[in-house]
Amino acid sequence: MNVENGYVDAPVAEDLxxxxxxxxxxxxxxxxILAHYYTDGEVQNVADFVGxxxxxxxxxxxLDNDIIVMCGVHFMGETVKILCPDRKVLVPDMNAGCSLADxxxxxxxxxxxxxxxxxxxxxxxxTTAAVKALTDIVVTSGNAMKVVGSxxxxxxxxxxxxxxxxxxxNSMTGRQMVLWDGACHVHEKFSxxxxxxxxxxxxxxxxxxxxxxTAPVRMVGDKVGSTAVLLQWARESEADTFIVATESGILxxxxxxxxxxxxxxxxPNDSTCACNECSYMKLNTLRKLYLTLRYEQPEIKVDAExxxxxxxxxxxxxxxx
Length: 321
Ligand code: 13P
Ligand code: SF4
Fold this sequence. Notes:
Layout: H1 18-29, E1 31-36, H2 41-46, E2 49-51, H3 53-60, E3 67-71, H4 74-83, E4 88-90, H5 99-102, H6 106-115, E5 120-124, H7 129-132, E6 137-139, H8 144-149, E7 157-160, H9 163-173, E8 178-179, H10 192-201, E9 206-209, H11 215-219, E10 223-224, H12 227-236, E11 241-245, H13 250-257, E12 262-265, H14 286-295, H15 304-319
Parallel strand pairs: 1-2, 1-3, 3-4, 5-6, 5-7, 7-8, 9-10, 9-11, 11-12
Helix pairs in contact: 1-14, 3-4, 4-15, 12-13
This protein binds 1,3-dihydroxyacetonephosphate and iron/sulfur cluster.
Residues 52-53, 126, 140-142, 184, 187, 212, 226-227 line the site of 1,3-dihydroxyacetonephosphate.
């Protein structure tokens, strides 16, 4: 067995029932599995909790398991470790990064903050632990509007790293937050042209858009929101067809929760694929999840001092109801 490549590399018998083994190991080790909506359906199916970034952080803060496996991307594993520092936090593949988190290095943000004295720093949860440690309040797409709304109207704010989410909040609240110039490579490449074609093809369909999408795509949305908000809206809507502009893994839970309704993914602008996938999220496979539980590797480690500093802005977020 080795973990040199960022995931456990070990032989697995071809006829092994991975699902049954995962269940067995979970019980034996008092482990729990969290999965983001963007992971593959088969990973979501074995998870104890499936959710958006906000829900997963809220759940993690209340868990008492010895081992927590986070099937998502690296920053999500770090968030769990910050909230549960005495627990073993595992991820199936350390290579599951995030282009948005990568667009904001802690040393660059530090400089940016120095250039804008007197500003409250709000960071999207899609950031490294080191960036969170420089932050006053962490937000997710599920609560960003509420958190910003809880601050006095004249408060000077730096918002990062997602310029699209930041622009969206500025446009909805009339604020003029100073924005970090970062973006998610998946959400920025939804094709407006293909979305408009789908709207013509399905005139009755409602359009669901994640706020990390660009403004022209957002403007076509009947509902703009986090993955959990979009799910809830689709459940409650009387419409039966939805055009979905967020990572296509969400369609698994949408279809499960809304039997009989139809969900059509918006394609990206740079390929002939019908779906727009986050390749990082798809690194979480059932096989790697099994090996992670079996060998208890790879483990998320965060410097104790960073944990101390990063916990406060996450707790502030979780306290805002
Ligand atoms: P949510 O906050 O909706 O879970 O989204 C997280 C994410 O990575 C979006 O790309
Ligand atoms: Fe990061 Fe974008 Fe993937 Fe979300 S979809 S994890 S923001 S790269």
